[in-house]
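Work Package 3 (structural annotation) set out to generate three-dimensional models for the target panel prioritized at the project kickoff. During this period the team completed the workflow that converts sequence records into discrete structure tokens, so that structures can be stored uniformly alongside our sequence database. As a representative example, we reproduce one entry of 203 residues exactly as it appears in the project archive.
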Amino acid sequence: TDKMLAWTKIDNSAGYILRINGVEQKDIIKSESVDISSYLMQTNDKTLTFSVKAVGKEFYYDSEYSNTVSYTKTYTLSKVQNVAFNNLNNMLSWNKVANAISYEIIFNENKVLTTTSTNFDFSTYITDVGIYKFKVRAIGNDDYKTGEYSEQYIFTKTKKLASVREDSINWTIEDERVRISWAKPEGAENYYVVINGTVFNDS
């Protein structure tokens, strides 16, 4: 993104000269603005100061330097990558982001959690089957702006149903029809019944 330094036009000027951190630059600027991005990249200084003077045309002296303005560099942290969830230990993990001081997790789109580590134990949050969503971003300090959120990671927690208890199966004959009943395992919605190798579905 361009970073523009601008000033008011001075009559009878042939151009302008910048002074950066007290050092006069050689190039004459022909307009009333300049992109300072290249100057920022040429130094490791965190803060740069700028002032401008007008170069006089024939018969006119150069002006005094303007008041000084400061620009403090800031950086944006990288986007968090490789978010993953381990179903065996309920740990969410991601890659470390350089210069991050902590991380913010958005859990199921509304709960905000923070950590200074690159993983988070969700054992107390994920206790039942369902769909769970996560996004993570790196948090910075005064020198580093907070990064953007990772891509959303979706984890679906499933659970294997218990088998129908053999001792709960009952056979009854009603009007020359055999009726089978059994105790419902927790979470079951429908069943498959196999009789002599033939599968029947009973919802």
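The two ends are 61 Å apart (CA to CA).
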